[in-house]
Backbone:
């Protein structure tokens, strides 16, 4: 058959076979400027990672860090450019989750992990100092924020914004005291024995009195 094709149809069978073999190999084949992939690499090429694989979990953790540290909107995971970036950097192996999954699963898991780390730092610190203030926005919404300051084991200053809350109640000393007590309870700081807590505030009477009623040493 090969002799017949060569003699009567002028078909270069050898060249045709080589072209077909090269096309079949595709990216797994070799060329002058391309390194031939291993069998394992050929099999894995184009394989999408499972959602519970270590690779997918690492990428999701990185996305959560990106959203949290850069204060990005949750809608960023729906952006065409962001999805293109994820596809290129993971060679198409990472299946981008929905915004709902990131909102309801990825970020809550990130919060729990960070909360445990902060609680451990608060527990290990010899002293914890707080700064707190309340203010009213232009829309007449009331807010109160508390930041914790401490020295780590290596004498490095650490600061944690523990809470920023909107309140429909007025900023009376009683309400400020309740807010601070609830915060100490939420961060498990009521069980720290005689560990002193100091609160640095402005001279507003309601804030200073509220800090004292919460059992904190007030510094102005």
Residues:
């Amino acid at each position: 058959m090969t002799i017949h094709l060569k003699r009567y149809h002028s078909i270069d069978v050898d060249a045709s076979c080589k072209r077909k073999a090269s096309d079949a190999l595709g990216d797994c084949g070799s060329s002058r400027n391309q390194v031939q992939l291993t069998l394992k690499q050929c099999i894995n090429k184009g394989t999408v990672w499972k959602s519970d694989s270590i690779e997918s979990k690492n990428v999701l953790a990185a996305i959560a860090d990106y959203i949290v540290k850069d204060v990005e909107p949750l809608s960023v995971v729906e952006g065409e450019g962001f999805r293109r970036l994820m596809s290129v950097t993971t060679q198409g192996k990472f299946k981008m989750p929905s915004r709902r999954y990131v909102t309801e699963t990825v970020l809550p898991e990130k919060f729990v992990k960070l909360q445990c780390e902060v609680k451990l730092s608060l527990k290990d610190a010899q002293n914890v100092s707080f700064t707190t203030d309340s203010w009213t926005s232009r829309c007449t919404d009331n807010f109160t924020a508390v930041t914790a300051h401490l020295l780590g084991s290596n004498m490095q200053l650490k600061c944690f914004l523990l809470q920023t809350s909107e309140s429909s109640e007025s900023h009376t000393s009683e309400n400020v005291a309740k807010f601070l007590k609830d915060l100490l309870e939420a961060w498990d700081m009521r069980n720290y024995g005689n560990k002193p807590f100091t609160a640095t505030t402005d001279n507003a009477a309601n804030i200073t009195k509220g800090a004292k009623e919460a059992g904190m040493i007030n510094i102005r």
